[in-house]
Write the structure tokens for this entry.
Amino acid sequence: MPAQQKKLIFCTAGLLSLASALGAAAALGTQLWVRGTTLCTTGALLVNASGPELHKFIGEIRYGLFSGQRVRQCGLGGRPLHFSFFPDLLRIIPASIHVSVILFCTVLLVFALVGAGFFLLNAFGSPYETLQGPAGLYLWSFISCSCGCLIMILFSSEVKFHHLSEKIANFKEGTFTFKTHSEQFANSFWTILVCSLVHFLNALLIRLAGFEFPFSKSKDSGTITGAADLMY
């Protein structure tokens, strides 16, 4: 492949990695991971609410990795309550999973920046064989893509299997009991999915630039060498 085309491919991959790093940073600092509604079951049962009356007992909840907000509604109007995971909710959330999600988000951010730097160095500089050659580029892309997948798996398990929204809604509630009415992943969660796909695309761009996978060996070279040995 001509040098100009390789330079264009590496520039594209570098800009994609940089955009992935910015997306990971934005996702890490926002409260747009989960949106949902909660039903005050205690209040609804007290007045035997049904149909349109049930909406008076449905509150809202949204949160990210560090903080969030819930609207407590039990028939007398909504009251917004802000909360933070550290240290307020540390006793009721699966702390090991939650900290792991934050850790992998940080790793994704760091390696996306590292990958962007190496892609741009390969485009405009003289690449080193180990760090900036094909093996290094595949490595940074693989680590970033793997971190993105782990983030989605861990956070999904935290929300769905450990009922994170319900635990948050019932935090410090002695009288009323809340149940998750609806729940959906929001923009920041899907941003992590896009970041993972970006790094997978980068691996394809490296291959398009003409680089073989680091662990692949050419069979033709062995065949030619064997034929040459037979000739002599």
User: Anything to note?
Assistant: Confidence is low (pLDDT under 50) at residues 221-232. Residues 95-124 form the longest helix (30 residues).
